[in-house]
Structures are given as C-alpha cells and as structure tokens.
C-alpha cells in the first residue's frame, strides 16, 4: 500500500475505539513499548480518547481501505500548569502494518497538529531501549536523545529502560 492510500484523520472515539483497543492490546500483550500489562477494554480506550480530545489535544488515526492501521496522540507532558506547552507523544501501529510508513505518517501529522494545538515541545517516552523501531522513527522525524532511565520497568520477566527523546514542535 502506498502512502497516498493512507489517510491520517482525527480519531472519533465512538467509531475508532474498538480498532484502537485491538492495536493497543497487541502491544500490551506482546511488546515492551508500553509498560501496561493488561489490555484496556474498548470502553476504557474510548474514555481515554474522549479525555484527550476534550482537553483540545490531538488524537489521530491512519486509515486505509476502512482499516485503522495505527493511531497517535499527544497530551500535556505533566499535569502542572508550567508544562502547558510541552506534550508527550504516543504512536502505535497495527502489527501487520509495520514497516509500511504508518508510524512516520502519524508522527509527522501529530507534530504539526501538536503545534496547531499550542504545544511548543514534544517528548517521546519510549519503553525499552531495545525498541529500535520507535527510536529510529523518532530520530527520522527530528527527535534527539534526552536520556535513559535504566531498569525503570519490569515486564516479561526482564528489567526495561525508558528512553527519552525530544524535539521542538
């Protein structure tokens, strides 16, 4: 599938939550990019989506032929007011769409949208320093390394680092 066939659009909780929950569930159960260990329900995902969207922040999906191939969103980095111009991104791609440009399309659109929503700085908080796909994606889109928290999480019987990356929006 070519990039021209992929549409990145704002997500709609009632319409997209089930597909998003299925994508995220795969990452929860099989990946270390998230430290969540139990997949949330589609209803819980819809609630998360609505909370982000209600704050005026972007939540996007990549769609091709009526299939949600991935999603991305950003939210304020921390709740305190001083962080109001800093956001953290999240990008997840459906496992059968890896390597097809979905992550790049989503993150590229998210960076633009974050700026449109008033953010000035975007942080990536990447689970697992061995998560080369996510780290490389962020590098390709202009993120620089900002540090590592060693052994910050524990999943699948092993300790996992957290990689911080950042860029201007």
Could you state the CATH homologous superfamily? Gcn5-related N-acetyltransferase (GNAT)
Number of strands: 7
H/E order of the elements?
EHHEEEHEHEE
State the shape.
globular
Structure classification: alpha+beta
Characterize the main sheet.
7 strands, mixed
Number of helices: 4
- Give the strand content: 25-35%
Any idea of the CATH topology? Aminopeptidase
Architecture (CATH level 2) name: 3-Layer(aba) Sandwich
Distance between the termini: 29 Å
Q: In terms of per-residue confidence, which ranges show pLDDT below 50 for 5 or more consecutive residues?
A: none
> How do the strands of the widest beta sheet line up side by side?
1-2-3-4-5-7-6
Fraction of residues in H or I helices: 25-40%
- The radius of gyration computed from the alpha-carbon positions, rounded to a whole number of angstroms, is 15 Å
Number of domains: 1
Mean pLDDT: 96
Report the CATH C-level class: Alpha Beta
List the helices and strands and how they pair.
Blueprint: E1 7-10, H1 13-30, H2 42-54, E2 59-64, E3 67-76, E4 86-93, H3 102-116, E5 121-127, H4 132-140, E6 144-155, E7 158-168
Parallel strand pairs: 4-5
Antiparallel strand pairs: 1-2, 2-3, 3-4, 5-7, 6-7
Explain what this protein looks like in three dimensions.
- By secondary structure, the chain is an alpha+beta fold.
- The model has no long low-confidence stretch (mean pLDDT 96).
- A seven-stranded mixed sheet has the order 1-2-3-4-5-7-6, sandwiched between helices.
- The chain has one domain (3-168): Aminopeptidase (3-Layer(aba) Sandwich).
- The radius of gyration is 15 Å and the shape is globular.
- It has helices at residues 13-30, 42-54, 102-116, 132-140, and strands at 7-10, 59-64, 67-76, 86-93, 121-127, 144-155, 158-168.
């Amino acid at each position: 599938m070519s990039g021209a066939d992929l549409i990145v659009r704002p997500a709609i909780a009632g319409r997209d939550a089930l597909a998003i929950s299925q994508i995220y569930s795969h990452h929860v159960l099989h990946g270390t990019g998230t430290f969540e260990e139990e997949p949330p329900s589609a209803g819980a995902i819809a609630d998360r989506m609505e909370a982000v969207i209600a704050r005026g922040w972007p939540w996007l999906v990549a769609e091709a032929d009526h299939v949600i191939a991935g999603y991305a969103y950003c939210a304020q980095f921390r709740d305190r007011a001083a962080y109001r111009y800093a956001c953290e991104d999240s990008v997840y791609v459906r496992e059968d769409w890896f390597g097809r440009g979905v992550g790049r399309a989503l993150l590229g659109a998210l960076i633009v949208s974050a700026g449109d929503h008033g953010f000035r700085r975007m942080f990536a908080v990447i689970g697992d320093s061995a998560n080369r796909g996510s780290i490389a994606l962020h590098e390709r889109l202009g993120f620089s390394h900002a540090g590592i928290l060693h052994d910050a999480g524990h999943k699948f019987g092993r300790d996992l680092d957290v990689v911080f990356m950042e860029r201007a929006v």
